[in-house]
Amino acid sequence: MEQVTRLRTQRTMAGTIAVVVETLYLAKPRGFCAGVVMAIEAVKDQAVAARERGDGGIAVYHDIVHNRTVVSRLESELGVSFVEDLGDLEVARRRAAEEGRDVGDTVVFSAHGVSPVVRQHAAELGLATVDATCPLVTKVHNEAKKYARLGYHILLVGDSTAHQEVIGTRGEAPEQTTVVAVVGNRKHDPLLADPNSVEVPDPSKVVVLTQTTLSVDDTMKTVDLLKRRFPELIVPPSDDLCFATKNRQDAVRTIAPSVDLFLVVTSEASSNGMRLVELATDLTASARRIESALDIEPAWLDGVRTVGVTSAASTPDDLVQAVVAFFRSHNQDLRVVEEGEWENIAFRKPRRVTPVPEAEAAAPGGGETAP
Ligand code: SF4
Predict the structure, then answer these.
(1) What are the C-alpha distances in Å from 23 to residues 4, 226, 262, 324, 340?
(2) Helix locations, the chain, DSSP H
(3) What is residue 234's DSSP assignment?
(4) Rounded to whole angstroms, how far apart are CA atoms 120 and 131?
(5) How far apart are CA 43 and CA 127, in angstroms?
(6) Which of 109, 164, 213 for mutating ligand 1's site (highest number of atoms within 8 Å of CB)?
(7) Could you report how far apart the first and last alpha carbons of the chain are, in Å?
(8) What residue's CA is closest to ligand 1, atom 3?
(9) Which DSSP state fits 193?
(10) Among the atoms of ligand 1, which is closest to the Cα of residue 135?
(11) N or C: which end of the chain has fewer CB within 10 A?
(12) Which residues, in sequence order, are CB contacts of 74 under 8 Å at separation 6+?
């Protein structure tokens, strides 16, 4: 039976636009990955535990994940404070005191990982730490440490020298690491080295590592180019792009041929989310980033009958469901197509590690952890 489509109109500054979207294609998988779930749950658990201990609120070093909604919910619902530098903790404490809250001595490291300098700083401040670094980021840190120890120069492919994951990984061996742009890099960070011209101290001792959340295609092109330039380049056996990044990009590729418009629900700071925007743009020439359904402009929907929707690994799914509700409010007969598989992966939550007094740390088996 021919699908009945209700025409609704919305008045916009551009005039009257008929919203006639008939079918929504929801990418699957999309949204939260195992690393993000682990990191958010760790913050929630620690915030509750700190309150029960009477320790006040907890602090998180950097946004726990790159999504504004997640961060503001943790701030407003659990009184979590976010700092970009551990030196800012005192400022955060004063601000919290003005609001009738307090910030205790527990800091959570975000899913993006931190450099050894930050760990050292936390130890100097006597903070208890909870390391919510995604294990797949930790894997890249371990590779950086291993190859630096062996005297290799590291070419770290990343989308920005300012991205927290890149800062953390580079921090494992800053003197031996050059951050290199992907081929086709669209961010134009002037501090990224060009893979066409980057030089290394000894071309026979060079390894390539990558940020976990880059474009699969651009990363392959970049590694191939670097291999041609440095024939002895070491490429670690399991590549560094994470499963969540790859799966979300594959899901976009699957539905792109069916859609007139692609909406990607992501914050701008999300590397994996912005790679989805770029991919959807390349495949459909009609993709938009939205933070939430509130950003949808009726003018984008002029003549559009099919819409694809995906979301970054840090985007809560209720934001996607709000997009579905938006389109359903214009067409009760909206068809929602959702094919593919959810990931079935979970990461163990980290424990809180309390500072170890120097004398105790020196003793065999010294140290203590607390749940
Ligand atoms: Fe880990 Fe990948 Fe998720 Fe980042 S996007 S938290 S690397 S699983």
Answers:
(1) 12, 43, 12, 10, 17
(2) 34-53, 68-78, 89-98, 116-124, 135-149, 164-170, 216-229, 243-255, 271-284, 317-330, 358-362
(3) B
(4) 13
(5) 15
(6) 213
(7) 59
(8) 35
(9) B
(10) 1
(11) N
(12) 40, 43, 44, 47, 60, 64, 80
Q: Which residues contact 208 (CB under 8 A, 6 or more apart)?
A: 154, 155, 156, 157, 223, 226, 233, 234, 235
Q: Tens of pLDDT along 248-297?
A: 999 999 999 999 999 999 999 999 999 999 999 999 989 999 999 999 99
Q: Token pair of 212, please? A: 């976990």
Q: Which atom of ligand 1 is nearest to the CA of 137?
A: 7
- Please name which of 287, 151, 309, 140 lies closest in space to residue 219, comparing C-alpha atoms: 140
Helix/strand number for the chain, H first, E second: 11, 16
Selection from 171, 86, 97, 169 nearest residue 129 by Cα: 86
The pLDDT of residue 369 is 44
Please tell me the distance between residue 134's alpha carbon and the centre of ligand 1 in angstroms.
Answer: 6
pLDDT at 362: 61
DSSP category for residue 87: G
List active site positions: 165
For residue range 147-185, list pLDDT tens digits in order. Answer: 999 999 999 999 999 999 999 999 999 999 999 999 987
List all residues whose CB is within 6 A of at least one atom of ligand 1: 33-36, 111, 134, 136-137, 212-213, 242, 244-245, 272, 313
- C-alpha to C-alpha distances, 134 to 27, 83, 256, 286, 317, nearest whole angstrom: 23, 19, 29, 32, 20
